[in-house]
Design a protein that fits this description.
7-stranded mixed β-sheet, 9 helices, 7 strands, globular
């Protein structure tokens, strides 16, 4: 793969913490220094922009496996602790088993128990993006709203969704073996199934923090739970 993902590294000492953001966001938006500076003490922090997000190039309709290869390349081969939110958590679940990644502990925030992208009407979304009628399907409408938020690259994000849907998230097929913390907002319907995901894992904890899907990530309780789990 020739394209390399944009990575921002905060220097430090010890095992790095890798942070992977959600759909239609970026590393800077989901993991702002104003909130996360000092959370992990003096440890190095690696913030990755996913394909078609932030300063990273698009990978077209590359399937999930190719996106994971790009993520593994960005993270490197040193042992890390891995934190993902929403789409970042979906990818982190699989990245923890990638042959080129060395993950000690895993934090998955706002993770849906299934694959929503297979239900997105991409033809309707692309038609609406080109000036056609708004999608009648609520999920497609929500995704279209997200990808068209200011600063995003809507067409490239829809291509990414198409590629991810080609190799859907299937948590029951293979689960991480690392100690894992699953976090969800108390008002986040997307993360309602994290208890079901926990039973697939050999060593897991489940926690709830204040907020909905957008708010939970920025709750102080979320940061405190992540820091405590990774400090063990």
């Amino acid at each position: 793969m020739t394209a390399r993902l944009n990575v921002h590294r905060r220097a430090g000492h010890g095992r790095p913490v890798v942070l992977v953001h959600g759909l239609a966001s970026s590393g800077a938006q989901d993991w702002p220094d104003a909130e996360w500076s000092g959370v992990f003490g003096d440890r190095p922090v690696v913030v990755v922009d996913l394909p078609a997000h932030g300063a990273s190039p698009a990978l077209g309709t590359a399937p999930t496996s190719e996106v994971l290869d790009a993520l593994a390349e960005a993270v490197g081969r040193d042992e890390v602790d891995l934190v993902g939110y929403s789409l970042g958590a979906r990818l982190a679940w699989d990245l923890a088993r990638h042959p080129s990644a060395a993950v000690r502990r895993l934090v998955l925030g706002g993770l849906a128990a299934g694959e929503p992208f297979v239900h997105v009407d991409l033809a309707a979304a692309r038609d609406a993006l080109a000036g056609g009628a708004a999608p009648s399907d609520p999920l497609t409408g929500m995704i279209l709203h997200m990808v068209t938020l200011p600063g995003n690259r809507p067409a490239e994000l829809l291509d990414l969704i198409e590629g991810l849907a080609a190799e859907p998230f299937d948590p029951a097929s293979a689960a991480p073996t690392q100690p894992t913390l699953l976090l969800g907002g108390v008002d986040d319907g997307m993360a309602a199934g994290i208890g079901d995901l926990a039973v697939l894992l050999p060593e897991s904890r489940v926690g709830r923090v204040p907020g909905d899907h957008l708010g939970a990530l920025h709750a102080p309780e979320f940061r405190a739970a992540v820091a405590a789990f990774l400090a063990d």
